[in-house]
Design a protein that fits this description.
The complex is a heterodimer of chains A (about 240) and B (about 110).
Chain A: H1 4-34, H2 39-48, H3 52-63, H4 68-78, H5 80-89, H6 100-105, H7 109-117, H8 126-154, H9 164-181, H10 185-200, H11 206-220, H12 222-234
Chain B: H1 3-27, H2 35-56, H3 69-85, H4 88-106
Helix pairs in contact in B: 3-4
The chains are: A mainly alpha (about 240), B mainly alpha (about 110).
Chain lengths: ~240, ~110
């Protein structure tokens, strides 16, 4: 194989993601079959959707029989952050040819983090390296999901409380975002919107209405947020 | 729900997800995104994360014993572990394990 070195670099750099994806994928597979769905549907979902937090969220919404339209809106908004990942790697992916559609499809939080935080070695073919890295990460995720879904069908696990892994993931992501942004206002807006939607509206409308409230608040407080962000950058 | 319904649902989520990843490549290939997009880019993700934390805890019961102690303490544990060890895997793993032990052994619901 002519791109052995690229593959080797991708394997080496993706090891931290491997551990995460296998474990979280396993938890997802386990949770999926705990709703009595067939195991292979979990694998299908991890191949075609391939978005950790969204998959956890969607499986809960499927189980709660939320309509397809609400599910589509929730998916768009929840994964909107990924649009912004794309903005940062536009130039990186520019000359990746036939690999480009897959690279775009496979741009998860973790792949994005690896692509943007690890400096590339000189002399490697960038597009092959990106492709192997993205593909390996998805393989870890699909493998973890499948093992979890199959294991969940064979052994009986007491999965009560396993759904907290999603909450924990959001907490970790929020902390990381605070480190980048250094403004507490978005977190206040999010909390206020969520609590308002929870107390004023039926629970199955909570996510959509909280998102609506928060967008309104975000634009109303645009000046204050920008001032806070600027102050921390200057200071 | 039968398997066909689930496959349809998976297809909808898959398309929506791919759309969010494809969006910038369709619109901002040759020019810089406008200032308002950059503002939303910075501000919206932390808002969404905060909403999702609350949303994922929507089944919390604050008005009856044990008053959401399991949820609140698990959130605190996850936060403290993450702030001190800074390893997202360890934080998620420990927080979830802590919560599972709380709901399965400490405050068993009947």
């Amino acid at each position: 194989m002519q791109t052995q070195q690229e593959l080797f670099a991708a394997v080496k750099n993706s090891i931290p993601v491997m551990m995460g994806y296998v474990i979280i994928g396993f938890a997802f597979g386990l949770l999926f079959v705990s709703f009595d769905y067939d195991w292979y549907l979990a694998t299908v979902m991890s191949i075609f959707v391939y978005a950790g937090a969204l998959q956890f969220l969607a499986i809960g919404m499927i189980n709660a029989k939320v309509g397809l339209f609400d599910l589509a809106i929730a998916s768009l908004v929840v994964n909107l952050r990924q649009s912004f990942y794309g903005l940062s790697v536009l130039r990186k992916f520019k000359s990746s040819g036939l690999f480009k559609p897959y690279l775009i499809f496979a741009l998860t939080d973790e792949t994005f983090a690896l692509l943007t935080s690890i400096p590339e070695k000189q002399g490697l073919s960038a597009k092959h390296y990106y492709f192997y890295l993205s593909l390996l990460n998805q393989c870890y995720w699909v493998a973890g999901t499948t093992i979890g879904a199959v294991a969940g069908g064979i052994f009986s696990f007491n999965t009560e409380g396993l759904e907290f892994s999603l909450t924990a993931l959001f907490i970790v992501l929020a902390v990381e975002q605070y480190k980048n942004l250094k403004s507490y206002l978005p977190f206040v807006i999010g909390a206020v919107s969520a609590i308002a939607a929870y107390s004023l509206l039926p629970v199955d409308r909570m996510l959509i209405s909280a998102i609506g409230f928060s967008m309104l608040l975000m634009f109303m407080l645009k000046k204050q947020i920008e001032r806070q962000v600027r102050a921390t950058i200057d200071g | 729900m039968d398997n066909f319904d689930i496959l349809i649902t998976i297809a909808v989520v898959a398309l929506a997800n791919f759309a969010t990843r494809l969006f910038p490549f369709l619109f901002f290939v040759n020019h810089e995104p406008p200032a308002v997009i950059i503002f939303v880019e910075k501000t919206f993700p932390p808002i969404i994360m905060t909403i999702l934390i609350f949303y994922s805890l929507k089944h919390i019961d604050l008005s009856n014993a044990p008053y959401g102690i399991s949820e609140i303490s698990a959130v605190v544990v996850t936060l403290v572990i993450h702030l001190s060890l800074k390893n997202y895997l360890v934080s998620i793993f420990t927080g979830t394990l802590f919560y599972m032990v709380m709901v399965q052994t400490v405050f068993v619901s009947v």
